[in-house]
Amino acid sequence: MKSITIEVSSRQKTELIDITSEVQQLLDGAGFDNGICMVYVPHTTAAVTINESADPAVARDIIMVLNQVVPWKAGYQHMEDNSPAHVKASLVGESVNTAVAEGKLQLGTWQGIFFCEFDGPRRRRVRIHLING
Ligand code: ZN
Prior knowledge:
Elements: E1 2-9, E2 15-18, H1 20-30, E3 35-40, E4 46-52, H2 56-69, H3 83-92, E5 95-101, E6 104-105, E7 111-117, E8 123-132
Antiparallel strand pairs: 1-8, 2-7, 3-5, 3-8, 4-7, 5-6
The protein binds zinc ion.
Zinc ion binds next to loops.
């Protein structure tokens, strides 16, 4: 297994950032042809998901619904005052796995990989684990 860390800078409090091209460039640079690409977010207030990248309104709608499901004020007990970000991170999840064939991420036509910021703006790390197959 080969592991590479990339950095992502968020600009908003809550933001979905399409990192598909960075991940694909990393595969190209590593000469990784076939296997599994795991994208892992080592943070407690950020996450990663795969969803539509063709229409940016989809990412905005996902944020809108997450903000409705997880309100900013709800009598949270965590004293850091960022519990909504922790809850959203757990709902969305910390990793995605994508097959790689002949050096290309095997995503659907409309799919992209999104880093999900829930407590930005911050500089974040994303770990890419390449598992030969
Ligand atoms: Zn916290």
